[in-house]
Amino acid sequence: MKIIIAGAGAVGTHLAKLLSGEKQDIILMDEDDEKLSRMGNNLDLMTVNLSPTSINGLKEAGVANADLFIAVTPYESQNMTACMLATNLGAKKTVARIDNYEYLLPKHKEFFSRLGVHSLIYPEMLAAREIVDAVKLSWIRQWWEFAGGALVMLGTKMRETAEILNVPLHELGGQNIPFHIVAIKRGSETIIPRGDDTIRLNDVVYFTTTKKYIPYIRKISGKENEPDIHNVMIMGGSRIAVRTVQYMPEDIHAKIIENDLNRCNRLTELVDDKVMIINGDGRDIELLREEGIRNTEAFVALTGSSETNILACLAAKRMGVTKVIAQVENVDYISMAESLDIGTVINKKFIAASHIYQMMLDADVSNVKCLTFADADVAEFTVKAGSRITKAPVKDIGLPKGATIGGLTRNGEGMLVTGNTMIQEGDHVVVFCLGMMIKKLEKYF
């Protein structure tokens, strides 16, 4: 598969690194030669110092033979123009990064497709949705819904109060337990567990289950006494912050603290009247106390500095905030954030890469999630007629090492999977896998 990525910024370079290990034919193009030189020589890709909006430049990059053209420069208009040109020069499929929510409305999809822009991605909006999912339940670290919520996956950290510590998984209740443990994150290692594995203190455990059993998982995880979230304080009035408060449930009250007065004035125009806008420094402990940090259950740090966000979350935890969420765009700081017990980390690069990666897949994949901490992915496959996964029980299919089936939905109903489960055509199957292994799993579906 020949893939051209236009834009060697944060999203483009991260995506190029991910895809270069997939044995794809990757070309990274950018007008800034310095950005391209930072990529190093150890990646299996080609870099070209050309403009993505130059017809000659696109021709020289070989766009006529491109299976996928991805425009992720910082400029929306440049991305849209590049995709239109690429399509007209022969690219089979195009993806543009945008920052205008209006373009994503369903009524505009056909219009942009006719112009040659086949898919649109808005990383800030995707990040905001992940933040809202994370604050819905105070005791979880990550949360995903599959098939409209018929099946859910959640990650939560095991404290001393958890009932399932130090018990081999095969002793947790046999075939009738209403959940499946798909992975355990222990230190820097991600484990796909077997029956003789045990859950230890401070493990982050990833469960799949149906919504009615979420209270049960909360109980066995020892999280029943953690307060529900009603008040959220957001540091930084970024576009992600605006989208976050727009998606926030009605019963959660939000405050945004922004240092720039002009931005504060703009925020009052962009968000609902019920959202309080505060002009000040979110690192100011006295200001946080005055604004009710002691009565706040969730603190979200969304400034442009990863270091500031991590430190602000640590300060909020010391002041008693149950749930802290930090935007960490510097990938090198993600493991540090985890070691400091920052509950949820938001990284636009990972989120955008997951969605673009989904577009590369030949199988019918409706959902791909990147687990920020775990170097792993979750994918939702729709099973095709006659596919390999339907030929035998799950235990005899021979899934590659590092992959496990977390559950499935059939006719809209969520089901957990055992070794004896027979998967059928039309099922929506949730697969958990280490690394970027999703491409290897396509042949099963």
From TrEMBL:
InterPro entries membership: K_uptake_TrkA, NAD(P)-bd_dom_sf, RCK_C, RCK_C_sf, RCK_N, Trk_Ktr_HKT_K-transport
UniProt domain RCK N-terminal: residue ranges: 1-121, 229-346
Superkingdom of origin: Bacteria
Record's keyword terms, sorted: Ion transport, NAD, Potassium, Potassium transport, Transport
Residues of the RCK C-terminal domain: 141-223, 366-445
Pfam family, one: TrkA_N
PANTHER family linked: POTASSIUM CHANNEL PROTEIN 2-RELATED-RELATED (PTHR43833), TRK SYSTEM POTASSIUM UPTAKE PROTEIN TRKA (PTHR43833:SF5)
NCBIfam families found in the cross-reference section: PRK09496.2-6 (NF007038), PRK09496.3-2 (NF007039)
Protein's name in the database: Trk system potassium uptake protein TrkA
Organism taxonomic ancestry: Bacteria, Pseudomonadati, Bacteroidota, Bacteroidia, Bacteroidales
